[in-house]
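User: Let's play a game. I give you a shape written as tokens, and you guess the letters that built it. Ready? Here's round one.
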């Protein structure tokens, strides 16, 4: 077999092994997310101004998602959606850098100490049993086990695909030209590590490749450690690219991530030698060739962990000044009001987390509910204040109604795409409820705009309602307005059975008052036929307000079917009695 063909086949085997490793990581991560379900979403609920809690939260999310690139992109997305402050996101990013070191320990401890078949094949067997046997109802756990097995199977193939360096002295001689140049070599391999992470789009995969190459003897201890430093910088590129079209705070979070990792690498370069000797002292012993080189991957994993922990400890006391510096580095560009809605969602290049992104959707639904509540309040204000500019009010209400139309389209398309992903049954049911809520909220916006148009007709045609009629209409409006506030305040939590019953009672009251108001309006028409036009407008207003009550009840029923959300806590509000 020719040398060229041998090289091509070796590269293909390495590429296939890496592909299996990445696919296993994705399947395992998806399975973990589905298994964790609401517990994953509740992580955001413990977010406070406490910087230590923020670091721990970022660490935990990254451990569960098994990708610092994915978790950092997710954090940037949450900042973009307004779910996290910049300070909270920076703390989480610090924790994410520590969380990504866990993969290195898994690979170092299990990937080179045990045979592939001893760990991978039993996990695949049990995982497949859970997935294909309906009796167990453990599909998500099965995916996690199957992914775990595929990950280590890919790692085993990767280890076997890398040729023995002892059989290729010419390559060893070639590599030595780049590893014996002192500081220049360190800088070179830091760049190599960054490029490697950018190419494979996963710091965990890049770490596995680095440990495998070191285990096989292709690179020495110092070179591998330098590559690991570069991987810490390379992992920031994904979030950086994802934030380019995002909000100012999202761009700031991405820049903070980049600065944190770059500055960390810069300060450790002068201390590189002592840092490696410190790791040697913590894990003493000689690194020998052959199958007993397990100590080398363990030292590299320890170096990676210590670097990120120390880097976090150095930055943590200066978190607020650091945030202020980033705010000056990425200044406000000024508000850009285009009237066009865009779903505030940032997608990861390597791995999305659809179940967690449902939190961002709920936040958008809350914004939508806030808009329609404002629209209804605007209608009530027009009824009570004749001095308001009716033309400007109609234009403003039309702008908001058009905006909610855009929100409905964008959110529905996003939810539809998310439903095509591999998600849990609970998440699929929640998506169905969210689609219904989106539709009902948009219908309420339409009704609010119709009410404003009716007020416009009432004003321009010089129609008059009596003081008593206006008061009755305002009382009716306040009942429905309270219902809308109730819906808005419960968009981030599941309605209990008692709350749904209260909502049902409120809607019945809305219907009852509608009947009374319409009946009185018809009586007034019979007594004074000259006021038929104004009474018909009055009846139309009552009908539109009643429709809003119907839509609000339908929204409450959809919320009842949604699982508990943990994005933001508010004090519960009851529907008006």
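Assistant: Ready! My guess for every position:
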């Amino acid at each position: 077999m020719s040398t060229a063909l041998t090289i091509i086949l070796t590269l293909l085997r390495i590429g296939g092994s890496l592909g299996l490793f990445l696919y296993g990581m994705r399947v395992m991560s998806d399975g973990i997310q589905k298994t964790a379900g609401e517990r994953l979403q509740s992580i955001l609920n413990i977010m406070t101004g406490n910087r230590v809690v923020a670091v721990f939260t970022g660490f935990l999310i990254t451990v569960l998602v098994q990708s610092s690139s994915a978790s950092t992109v997710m954090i940037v997305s949450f900042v973009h959606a307004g779910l996290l402050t910049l300070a909270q996101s920076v703390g989480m990013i610090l924790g994410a850098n520590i969380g990504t070191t866990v993969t290195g320990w898994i690979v170092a401890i299990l990937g080179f100490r045990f045979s592939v078949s001893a760990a991978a094949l039993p996990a695949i067997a049990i995982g497949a049993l859970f997935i294909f046997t309906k009796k167990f109802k453990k599909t998500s756990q099965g995916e996690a086990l199957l992914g775990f097995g595929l990950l280590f199977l890919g790692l085993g193939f990767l280890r076997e695909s890398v040729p023995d360096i002892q059989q290729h002295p010419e390559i060893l001689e070639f590599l030595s030209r780049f590893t014996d140049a002192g500081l220049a070599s360190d800088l070179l391999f830091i760049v190599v590590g960054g490029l490697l992470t950018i190419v494979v789009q996963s710091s965990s995969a890049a770490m596995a490749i680095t440990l495998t190459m070191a285990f096989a003897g292709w690179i020495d201890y110092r070179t591998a450690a330098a590559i690991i430093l570069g991987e810490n910088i390379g992992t920031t590129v994904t979030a950086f690219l994802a934030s380019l079209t995002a909000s100012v705070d999202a761009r700031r979070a991405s820049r903070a991530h980049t600065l944190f990792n770059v500055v960390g690498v810069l300060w450790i370069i002068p201390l590189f030698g002592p840092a490696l000797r410190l790791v040697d002292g913590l894990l003493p012993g000689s690194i020998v060739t052959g199958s007993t080189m397990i100590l080398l991957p363990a030292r590299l994993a320890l170096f990676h962990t210590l670097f990120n922990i120390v880097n976090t400890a150095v930055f943590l006391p200066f978190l607020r000044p650091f945030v202020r510096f980033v705010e000056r580095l990425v200044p406000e560009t000024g508000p850009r009001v285009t009237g066009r809605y865009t779903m505030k969602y940032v997608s990861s290049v390597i791995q999305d987390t659809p179940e967690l992104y449902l939190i961002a959707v709920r936040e958008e639904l809350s914004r939508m509910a806030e808009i329609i509540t404002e629209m209804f309040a605007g209608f009530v204000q027009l009824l009570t204040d004749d001095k308001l500019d009716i033309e400007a009010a109609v234009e403003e209400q039309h702008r908001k109604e058009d905006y909610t139309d855009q929100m409905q389209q964008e959110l529905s398309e996003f939810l539809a795409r998310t439903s095509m992903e591999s998600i849990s049954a609970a998440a699929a049911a929640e998506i169905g409820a969210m689609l219904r809520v989106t539709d009902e909220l948009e219908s309420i916006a339409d009704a609010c705009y119709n009410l404003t148009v009716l007020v416009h007709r009432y004003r321009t045609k010089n129609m008059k309602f009596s003081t008593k009629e206006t008061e009755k209409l305002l009382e009716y409006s306040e009942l429905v307005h309270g219902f809308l506030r109730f819906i808005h305040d419960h968009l981030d939590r599941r309605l209990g059975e008692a709350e749904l019953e209260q909502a049902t009672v409120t809607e019945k009251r809305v219907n009852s008052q509608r009947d009374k108001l319409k009946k009185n309006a018809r009586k007034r028409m019979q007594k004074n036929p000259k006021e038929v036009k104004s009474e018909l407008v009055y009846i139309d207003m009552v009908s539109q307000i009643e429709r809003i009550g119907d839509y609000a009840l339908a929204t409450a029923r959809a919320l009842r079917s949604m699982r508990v959300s943990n994005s933001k806590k508010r004090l519960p509000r009851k529907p008006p009695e």
